[in-house]
Automatic annotation (TrEMBL):
Cofactor(s) it depends on: FAD
Residues of the Acyl-CoA dehydrogenase/oxidase N-terminal domain: 6-118
Acyl-CoA dehydrogenase/oxidase C-terminal domain segment(s): 257-384
Protein name: Acyl-CoA dehydrogenase family protein
Record family assignment: Belongs to the acyl-CoA dehydrogenase family.
EC numbers: 1.-.-.-
């Protein structure tokens, strides 16, 4: 493995960082999260048109850049550093790969160029508490997490030869209130032929009710969707057996990108804390000169650097057939929680006030643990998949 970045990868990071420094400072961030969309459309347009982020990992045949998951992870690291609210995660990381993997050629040609251009935003509608299960990060996705029977969720029934109608409710859908296209996971087939399929639903479809939910992390907006006999288009073919497999494959990429994003936020939280302890004084000297404070920040630095290495490796490993995204995500979530927590402690009372940005990183850490973790479940499932705790007979 070559651990160095290419000139193109360094350029992506540098250009994105410069843009976010100009367009996503603290005032702009707070203004964006208070808008109905939960993000700045002008910033999203700049990210799409100037940098091509939505199509970074999409093939050139569909208007994308044709890069790998590594470039997407590096971009996420920069957006995570600024806590930049945008549809990037929901559109480019969760939805677009599924359209590419499962969609018919007609569906790909119709949707992917618009996603790559940033003119179409998308969201994956999976019950929020089951998102990590659907992506096989904390458990196998062969159960009834999408609904069916008494499980609730969303159900689909076929009308005629090709039409589908969806009904049910999904909560905690990332950017679900503003996405122009929804990929809805629904249960169909009844008891005899029970299966989970994905359906394309227009954001303005009749019978669809979308409500933005109040979330702990305002920079990661979520929505509740109510589908009342809504028309849906099947993604791919009815006889496709690959839905759960592709969700699982997408999950490893999602985990690697999320890990990089969390590492960016943790690195920035640590940087801001170090700057603050050099300025804050007690007993006539900066608190950063106290040995106890140095030790605490050194421990955070080690955690962040270890998580960064794990995130980079996870992104690189995707192209080599290794699945270590869940472990990297566990490491990154833990590092972010520690960095943000120490930041709050060392900033003192001001750290958790609305006027200071330290609390935003703390809320991102807590919110991501709730949505994509917790870390111990990510590790437990990875250990189970590696058969680490299986008993073995010893022959003497």
């Amino acid at each position: 493995m070559d651990a160095s970045f290419t000139a193109e990868q360094d350029e992506i990071r540098r250009t994105l960082r410069e843009l976010l420094q100009k367009r996503c400072g603290s005032p702009e961030l707070r203004t964006a999260v208070d808008t109905p969309a939960g993000h700045d459309p002008a910033l999203w347009t700049a990210l799409a048109q100037q940098l091509g982020l939505p199509g970074l990992a999409l093939p050139e045949a569909y208007g994308g850049v044709g890069c790998s998951a590594t470039e997407l992870a590096l971009a996420a690291e920069e957006t995570g550093s600024f806590l930049a609210p945008s549809p990037l995660l929901a559109t480019a990381v969760l939805a677009a790969p599924l359209v590419l993997a499962l969609g018919t050629e007609t569906q790909r040609a119709r949707l992917l160029p618009r996603i790559a251009a940033g003119s179409l935003t998308a969201a994956l509608a999976v019950p929020g508490t089951d998102l990590t299960t659907a992506l096989t990060l904390t458990g196998p996705n062969g159960g009834e997490w999408a609904g069916g029977g008494r499980a609730g969720g969303v159900q689909a029934r076929q009308v005629g030869d090709s039409g589908w109608r969806l009904y049910g409710q999904v909560a905690q859908v990332l950017d679900g209130h503003s996405a122009e296209l929804l990929l809805v996971a629904a249960h169909t087939g009844g008891f005899a032929r029970s299966r989970t399929l994905l359906f394309l639903v227009a954001g303005d479809a009749d019978g669809l009710v979308r409500v933005r939910q109040t979330s702990l992390d305002a920079t990661r907006p979520q929505a509740r969707l109510e589908l009342r006999d809504v028309e849906g288009e099947l993604l791919g073919r009815d006889d496709s057996p690959h839905v759960l497999r592709e969700l699982s494959a997408t999950g490893d990429t999602v985990a690697a990108v999320l890990a990089a994003e969390a590492v960016g936020a943790a690195d920035r939280a640590l940087e801001r804390t170090v700057q603050y302890v050099k300025q804050r004084e007690q007993f006539g000297r900066a608190i950063g000169s106290f040995q106890a404070v140095k030790h605490r920040l050194a421990d955070v630095y080690v955690q962040v650097q270890a998580a960064k290495s794990a995130a980079y490796y996870a992104a690189w490993a995707i192209g080599n057939g290794e699945r270590v995204g869940g472990l990297a995500l566990a490491q990154a979530l833990e590092a972010l929680r520690i960095a943000a927590g120490e930041g709050i402690q060392l900033h003192g009372g001001i750290g958790f006030t609305w006027e200071h940005d330290a609390h935003l990183y703390f809320k991102r850490a807590a919110g991501d643990e709730l949505l994509f973790g917790p870390a111990h479940r990510l590790r437990a499932y990875a250990a189970e998949g590696a058969h680490l705790f299986e008993s073995r007979e010893v022959t003497v």
